[in-house]
Automatic annotation (TrEMBL):
One of its GO terms (molecular function) is 8-oxo-7,8-dihydroguanine DNA N-glycosylase activity. One of its GO terms (biological process) is mismatch repair. It catalyses: Hydrolyzes free adenine bases from 7,8-dihydro-8-oxoguanine:adenine mismatched double-stranded DNA, leaving an apurinic site. Residues 207-337 form the Nudix hydrolase domain. Its cofactor is [4Fe-4S] cluster. Adenine glycosylase active on G-A mispairs. MutY also corrects error-prone DNA synthesis past GO lesions which are due to the oxidatively damaged form of guanine: 7,8-dihydro-8-oxoguanine (8-oxo-dGTP). Its EC number is 3.2.2.31. It comes from Natronogracilivirga saccharolytica. Keywords: 4Fe-4S, DNA damage, DNA repair, Glycosidase, Hydrolase, Iron, Iron-sulfur, Metal-binding. Signal peptide: none annotated. Belongs to the Nth/MutY family. This is Adenine DNA glycosylase.
Length: 341
């Protein structure tokens, strides 16, 4: 992993942000593309958010990219473009919490702070036979105290990386390779044959499901209307086809008409059936996205977003230039394939 072969705090920071909620194999190509385009904070800060989000597209949890962009501007404005070396300055960066600050500071500057991610929590809970629910803050607090006690203060960066790697490669959630583990003799869960039960994580709440209907408005030149989501909203800064959640007792076509009127102040004619139906899962809910072709009714000539965000008429071939949420991107791919035919 390239971020394990550098002491550059900027590159370590990029990797740690990308690895939040993301597997290593998924993050790696994004890291390589991202750091090639933005090798330092100044290049990231000077880029437009649209370009940053386009490079990030598909990695999910887009607030990470927005916060990184803002943090890069902080580094340029407050630290002359050099990544800060003080813990309090690092944790003051947008989107940086105790975990990320500890990871960057310990790896880049040998700062004695323990890093506690999911892998570390698993290693320590098995090592000490902690049976309590790791969803509870009290359990997390206990593990952090134990991690701080174990920390090699002479080599905190190496220690933190070693424990994270141990959890990722040997002390895995299922079928851990205990026979290869250097902590086998000390591991209480192993000696009690409890590695399959520890750590304990209470069942997650059932995720709600929503039906979303969007309208692909086309004009006489086969251009399509897209709108940008507010930065402070979920998937903020990304472009989408306007629409929204179906309300009780409402048909999907009625949803499109209502949402486009509420969002853009237009009235539309909607085709009877969707041309694409997509199922997609987010962290806290799932959706079925129904995409309908639509046309302005002739009285609505200049759609404008009522939230003040920009809207654009774009040709099918231009859709690739804009960053879309994953479900919307599948719609753009369908539209481009229609054009190819």
């Amino acid at each position: 992993m390239p971020w394990r072969n550098t002491s550059d705090p900027y590159l370590i920071w990029i990797s740690e942000i990308m690895l939040q909620q993301t597997r290593v194999d998924q993050a790696l190509p994004y890291y390589e593309r991202f750091t090639k385009r933005y090798p330092d904070a100044a290049s990231l800060a000077s880029s437009g958010l649209d370009e940053v989000l386009r490079l990030w597209e598909g990695l999910g949890y887009y607030s990470r990219a927005r916060n990184m962009h803002k943090a890069a501007k902080q580094i340029v404005d407050e630290h002359d473009g050099s990544f800060p070396t003080d813990y309090q300055d690092v944790i003051s960066l947008r989107g940086v919490g105790p975990y990320t600050a500890a990871a960057v500071m310990s790896i880049a500057f040998n700062y004695p702070a323990p890093v506690v991610d999911g892998n570390v929590m698993r290693v320590i809970s098995r090592l000490y036979h902690i049976e309590d629910d790791i969803r509870l803050q009290s359990t997390r607090d206990r593990i952090e105290i134990l991690a701080a006690d174990l920390l090699d203060r002479a080599r905190p960066g190496t220690f933190n990386q070693a424990v994270m790697e141990l959890g990722a490669t040997i002390c895995t959630p299922r079928s851990p390779a205990c026979h290869d583990c250097p902590l086998q003799n000390s591991c209480q869960a192993y000696h009690r044959n409890r590695t399959g039960d520890i750590p304990y994580k209470s069942p997650a709440k059932k995720r709600p499901h929503h039906h979303i209907a969007v309208g692909v408005i086309r004009d006489a030149n086969n251009r399509m209307l897209i709108s940008r989501r507010p930065e402070n909203a979920m998937l903020g800064g990304l472009w989408e086809f306007p629409g929204g959640k179906q309300e009780p007792g409402e048909s999907l076509r009625e949803t499109v008409k209502r949402e486009l009127n509420e969002e853009l102040g237009v009235r539309v004619m909607v085709e009877k059936k969707p041309f694409e139906v997509i199922r997609h899962a987010y962290s806290h809910f799932t959706i079925t996205l129904h995409a309908f072709f639509a046309e302005l009714d002739g009285l609505s000539e200049n759609p404008e977003a009522r939230n003040g965000e920009p809207v654009k008429w774009v040709a099918p071939g231009e859709l690739v230039r804009f960053a879309f949420p994953k479900a919307n991107r599948k719609i753009t791919e369908k539209l481009v394939s229609y054009r190819a035919k």
